[in-house]
Amino acid sequence: MPIGDWLVRREMLTPNKVALVDALRDYRKITYREWNRSANRTANFLHARVGVSKGDRVAVLAMNCVEYLDIWFACGKLGAILQTLNWRLTPNELAGLIDDAEPRVLVYGPDFLRQVEELRDRIPRKTQCVYLDSEALAPAAASGNPSRPVTPPSSHSGDVRFSERDEYPETPPPPVELSWSDPWAICYTGGTTGLPKGAVLTHRAIAANSVNTVVSWGLTPDDVTILNSPLFHTGGLNVFTAPLVHLGGTSIVCRAFDADQVFDLIRDAGVTVYFGVPTMFIAMQQHPRWQQADFSRLKLVISGGAPCPLPVFEKFWDRGIDFKTGYGLTEAGPNTFWLPPEDVRRKPGSVGFPLFHVDVQVVDESGRKCDAEQVGELIVRGPHMCAGYWNRPEESKKAIDAQGWLHTGDLARRDPEGYYYIVGRSKEMIISGGENIYPAEVESVLHAHPEVAEAALIGVPDAKWGEVGRAIVVPLPGSKLTSEDLIGFCQSRLARYKIPKSVVFVETLPKTAAGKIDKKVLAVQYGGT
Predict the structure, then answer these.
(1) CA distances from 140 to 16, 60, 69, 460 (A)
(2) Per-residue model confidence as pLDDT tens digits over 152-197
(3) Are 150 and 224 found together in one domain?
(4) Would you say residue 335 has pLDDT above 80?
(5) Which helix (H) or strand (E) holds 424?
(6) Residues 384, 482: one domain?
(7) 392 and 481 share a domain?
(8) Beta strand extents in 9-102 (DSSP E only)
């Protein structure tokens, strides 16, 4: 069997099992047989109509949809490389990514007509634009008005319509010889300044992450997840989506995160496992339906992407859910650790132990292994790692050393029992009067205040201490919270040097494309003295 054709094998094994539930089309159920045939049509269309062959990049600029997944697995069948484009980027930034990977095809959805029009002059001649011309994908349809027509690309008759794939056969495309080291996807790191780096995810990396997840997290073919993390992010592709395909589970494909929809699906759709970033879980806990929601069928709820404040854990624990935090990054997995259920409350904030085929160490600045409770840089090694960065050989060498260790830039510690904790990003650490302040610890305390909706800590210059903490806080609606109240709240919970020396109240916190709080934007806006 060709290495990249997961769906042909999954159809052989469980043809009638529900693979996908399409939330954009009245929750239509799609079996593995139906999905494999649709991916075959997509592969034949991409190959015969627009000339996609082994090694070609297929860029996608679209909201989550079944077609996106069809394209990803069609790329596997053809030996092509999916290039995921972050739809929150400006046209100028998107142009930089298109220049970076020089895709053979740019597939774009109806949400992004304006961006593509602005990009036209910078799209290479050899790149064929393909328009996702489905009413189900239109912004109007997604917002509850399906009768409004999709606006087609009017001035560029050279664009191919994705609906043409219906004219192509559902038989497998010509087989392609692949090795495990061949790329399957390019996922860009969440950089907010300069051009993001494209992590090259090989067939080995995606398969190894899937195997690690299935055997270490205890997934089963009966598991059902909500896929509402963006598919341009490794979390959308690889936390549960690929592992559940490997295993024969089910993903409910949603356009994007919507708290009401999540509550509906938890109640009605048999959801058993769910992944999100902290901002998503905070939004759920602030939603009017939180107290009435029945979480009894959920066996695993896991947060990733950024440190999660302890109060978020505790609210899930109060509802009987073993909520835990994970750790991963675009370059490795992203799934890297597992905390056993019996340790969830005993080891709050721990990510647990490395997965089955993952090696980790915490090292100091000289590369020596740290002792227990000593904070250092987390380094990772294993078959789930990326093959480096696309067109960035020097940066690839800096990130992955000669022994195969990926230097994450994340700070971690290991307790005497061997459990790992992620402390934060090394670049976000605040050094105040020679003492290290880890923002995640302070942010967890800030979130414990009953009138705080969201909070972040940044470092600001200080004449005496060199640098001190500043809290950027979103209060709950109607709150009369003052900076004095919040600093006083911290005094009995944090060492003196960790307490924020100033507080700025804001209406919202800026977020990155992956839903993380954007510390770089906060530093620019509020990092002055």
Answers:
(1) 32, 20, 22, 44
(2) 555 466 899 999 999 999 999 999 999 999 999 999 985 444 578 9
(3) no
(4) yes
(5) strand 420-425
(6) no
(7) no
(8) 18-22, 28-31, 57-61, 81-84
Token digits for 457?
A: 């800590």
In angstroms, the Cα distances linking 300 to 220, 505, 508 are 12, 34, 29
Q: Read off the pLDDT band of 449 (50, 70, 90).
A: very high
What are 204-261's pLDDT values in tens digits? 999 999 999 999 999 999 999 999 999 999 999 999 999 999 999 999 999 999 999 9
Confirm if 217 and 250 have CB atoms less than 8 A apart: no
Identify whether 460 is part of a domain.
Answer: yes
State how far the Cα of 347 lies from the Cα of 248, in Å rounded to an integer.
32
Selection from 199, 187, 182, 210 nearest residue 357 by Cα? 210
Peptide bond into 153 cis (omega under 30): no
Domain count of the fold of the chain: 3
Q: Which of 383, 399, 425 is the last residue of a domain?
A: 425
Q: How far is CA 118 from CA 94, 112, 115, in A?
A: 10, 10, 5
Task: Look at residue 375 and tell me if it is in a domain.
Answer: yes
**How many whole angstroms separate alpha carbon 367 and alpha carbon 362?**
9
- Helices and strands, counts by H and E, the chain: 16, 25
Q: Can you name the residues that pair with 83 across neighbouring β-strands? A: 59, 186
Distances (CA, A) of 510 to 144, 253, 392, 475, 525: 27, 26, 29, 15, 10
Residue type, 165: R
State phi, psi for 422 to the nearest 5 degrees.
-95, 125
Which range of residues forms the domain containing residue 160? Answer: 27-178
Q: Residue 220's domain is classified under what CATH number? A: 3.40.50.12780
Gap between the Cα atoms of 381 and 383, Å rounded: 7
Give me the CATH number covering residue 486. Answer: 3.30.300.30
DSSP 174-239: PP----TTSEEEEEE---SSSPPPEEEEEHHHHHHHHHHHHHHHT--TT-EEEE-S-TTSHHHHHT
List the beta bridge partners of residue 30: 20
